[in-house]
Design brief:
two-stranded antiparallel sheet, globular, mainly alpha
């Protein structure tokens, strides 16, 4: 994602091209879903889909943000189109979706498990709906698994070229350790074992690390600034051991906190974490973010209300249309819900509860609801005399 951001930084360093590209990717997957679900829609209803998404969902906010967040939602929508609607897609669209999903996976560590869950759920839905022969199922499985294979190959290859070692998350920050400390078990384990285990993280914080994820990782006293390169390598190597030992020492508390985090993350998808009006100033070695324009709090508040209302309305709308849903649409909604739950689980357990992480995918359900509603409306319209004569 850093390379993509650098290539799409123009005009100047405004990152406008990046925002346009991300918005274009959203428009691509939404157009695919519209064509696959309701190919009979005319131009006006199709434009209405885009207008509703732009005004009522979180998609435009995250598409305009210079972070890979929106690509999580795009990977869900793309995986849904590739798997559930596989029989309605042509070879060009399939290849486009495979390439797009693979790219999205490579842009953030959370996208790989998220895309895997959605692709598996979509493949199961496709096999249940179509009941293909073993040979046909095997051929389809190659399509379904190809985004994962391409993404893993790209991650391992770039890691080896850049750092001399193949890794899916090279030079990562210890986010899982920070999450464990914030939840409690990690902090208690370090408190009890720093004196005997000689963990690298204890050399930085001692037995009392910061309990907030942001302070642990990114503050001036966090590992980003205090850990040496040698210490960071040891922290990465020891991270999974500490997290596993802490969870085993306090399993009930860890399960309770993880379940709570998942629940909170599932319904936390507003715009509060997005800060606009900032600009990068300084050189390569001393760059920093500076607020150059005021952040429009009123606009974000109004938009957040609309986002939550549209999400709730989409649930009620789909419930009202439940008798008009086609089996493939039920499968698509189910797979989308798997994606939303998987995203909440991945972020809530391994990272932290924040608007950004669920807001990046919450727009999927309203998109499906709007398209299905317009499909039902189009079918309910009486046929014109000309169309009746043609029929």
């Amino acid at each position: 994602y850093s390379l993509t951001t650098y290539l799409l930084r123009f005009p100047g360093h405004s990152l406008l091209a990046l925002a346009i590209a991300q918005a274009g990717a959203v428009a691509l997957v939404v157009s695919c879903l519209r064509r696959l679900i309701a190919p009979q829609l005319a131009l006006r209803p199709s434009l209405a889909v885009g207008a509703a998404i732009a005004a009522l969902t979180s998609a435009p906010w995250y598409a305009a943000y210079a972070m890979p967040d929106i690509l999580a939602g795009i990977s869900i929508a793309g995986a849904l189109a590739l798997t559930v609607f596989f029989d309605r897609t042509g070879i060009v669209l399939r290849m486009t979706l495979v390439a797009l999903i693979a790219f999205c996976i490579t842009t953030h560590g959370s996208h790989l498990p998220l895309a895997f869950c959605v692709l598996v759920a979509g493949a199961i839905a496709n096999f249940v709906l179509k009941r293909p022969s073993p040979a046909l199922a095997a051929r389809r499985s190659l399509w379904f698994v190809s985004p994962i294979v391409l993404a893993v190959a790209a991650l391992l290859g770039t890691s080896y070229v850049a750092f001399g070692e193949p890794s899916l998350a090279p030079k990562r920050y210890p986010i899982q350790l920070a999450r464990s400390v914030s939840d409690g078990p990690g902090a208690w384990h370090l408190r009890d074992h720093c004196a005997t285990e000689r963990y690298a993280i204890c050399e930085i914080f001692g037995p009392n690390p910061p309990r907030r994820v942001r302070d642990f990782l990114w503050s001036e006293n966090g590992v980003r600034y205090r850990a040496t390169p040698e210490q960071m390598e040891r922290i990465r190597a020891e991270e999974s051991t500490i997290v596993r030992r802490a969870a085993m020492e306090y399993p009930v508390h860890q399960l309770r906190r993880s379940a709570t985090n998942i629940f909170l993350q599932l319904f936390d998808f507003g715009t509060d974490d997005l800060v606009f009006g900032e600009r990068i100033v300084g050189g390569v070695d001393d760059s920093s973010l500076v607020q150059v324009h005021p952040d429009n709090r009123m606009l974000k508040t109004v938009s957040e209300v609309l986002i939550y209302l549209s999400f709730a309305a989409s649930i009620f709308l789909l419930f009202a249309l439940r008798r008009r849903l086609r089996s493939v649409e039920v499968a698509a909604i189910s797979v989308a819900l798997v994606g939303l739950l998987a995203n909440a689980a991945v972020c809530g357990i391994l990272s932290g509860v924040t608007d950004r992480y669920q807001g990046r995918v919450a727009w999927i359900l309203p998109v499906l609801a709007i398209i299905i509603w317009l499909r039902v409306r189009a079918e309910d319209k009486p046929a014109t005399p000309a169309s009746a004569a043609t029929a």
